[in-house]
Amino acid sequence: MAGLSRRGLLSVSAALCALCAPALAADGYFLNGYGPRQKALGGAGVADSRDAMSLSINPAGLVDLPRELQLGVTALIVNRGYSTTGQPLVVAPGDVRSGRPVFPIPHDAYSAPIDGDSAWGTASYANGGINTAYDFGHYRAPAGGPYGGGFAGVDLEQNFTTAGYARKFGAISIGVAPTLAVQMLNVQGLKSFSAYSSSPDHLSDNGYDWSVGGGIRAGLQWRITEQLRFGLAGSTPMYMTAFRKYSGLLADGGRLDIPATVIAGLAYDVVPDVTVMADWRHIFYSGVPTLHNSSFPLRLNSFGSPNGVGYDWQDTNSASFGVEWRATPGLALRAGYHYSTNPIPSRAASFNVLTPVINMHNVSGGFSYAVTKNSTIDFSAIYAFKNNTRGIEALPQTAQNPYGAYNPNATVNLWLQGLELTIGWTYKFDPDDHSFIPRLDRL
């Protein structure tokens, strides 16, 4: 029981640490994978589960795993910002780069067979969410910063803690994983938009606020032949409590649910030691009013109002391709590619200066190396090519423009590029080892 408590404490600790770090995302603010194996494969693997972190993508894969423990951390090195051309009237002009370029995000997972046909597991992982930090430079009246409200930025972070159960029915495995979600949000530099808020005191610069909620992830895996497997998984929306401190910014009085997702894919063993994978994923940003509602025109008192103004994000579709070569019993080599559609349309560029999540093309690679019979070191690297969205500056409602307007004399260009480096450790328990934590003599 003491070991179980330690493992629970480990998951909670990793969850709290993950709430301290933003991320380089791949599909909007969702990462393209969780854990070094998924990341190295470009996010593919819904049909091919080989480590405990696979619970984060498809809980059905738990039945194919031994009892193992995984720990790891990702270092995110992110460059993002915006630039303007012409004569902008709302956004501060110039080539403006966000600060805070390097962050860590930990993860952990545990899997355990129950019998020959069922298994359970736990995992803690995170979407880094959104993070920007613009200083007082690139002055816009009255107080500097991108929007004239001084130092500006958004820090949105999301953590998921899940427990899953899976069972095998012949060639088909089915799994379910109830998930607890926690969000943290801090918004600064938007006080110049007070007239456009339904509650100006809850618009900006109120420090961090928390939101909790949850949903369910479920999935299946079908072994069509000995070489070919099909996987399907999805998550319900994560229904979250409102951010009360930002009820004058986010639609519906501070609501920011986490959108539903669906993933489908195939895995094929070209030869026994080489597997190729291809996945497709859809994220339903259209189901979250704060993210999907139109950002134009920005009317008086519209921030925070019922079905109020949003970020104008669109649903994303992405494709992941990965290949894994298990070169020796102790060495696996991996490579991947990930492509995602852009959630931010050009018409919403000026409103998304604080949220430039426009990452489309990623290449990745990595390896696993067994340092002992029980312990494996895992590594992955992802490079996100620079991507941008350019649009004409949008102007809010004024007495001169009661329906809002676009500024034909200025454009706003959002951009993002970056690097992810992930290192992990996997410990596989021996069949005769019934301890709750790894034994020092077998590390």
TrEMBL record:
Keywords: Cell outer membrane, Membrane, Signal, Transmembrane, Transmembrane beta strand. GO terms for molecular function: long-chain fatty acid transporting porin activity. The keyword Transmembrane helix does not apply. SUPFAM superfamilies: Porins. It comes from Methylosinus trichosporium (strain ATCC 35070 / NCIMB 11131 / UNIQEM 75 / OB3b). GO terms for cellular component: cell outer membrane. It comes from the Bacteria. The lineage of its organism: Bacteria, Pseudomonadati, Pseudomonadota, Alphaproteobacteria, Hyphomicrobiales. Belongs to the OmpP1/FadL family. It holds the Pfam family Toluene_X. It is a multi-pass membrane protein. It is found in: Cell outer membrane. Residues 1-25 form the signal peptide. The keyword Transmembrane helix does not apply. InterPro entries: OMPP1/FadL/TodX (IPR005017). This is Hydrocarbon degradation protein.
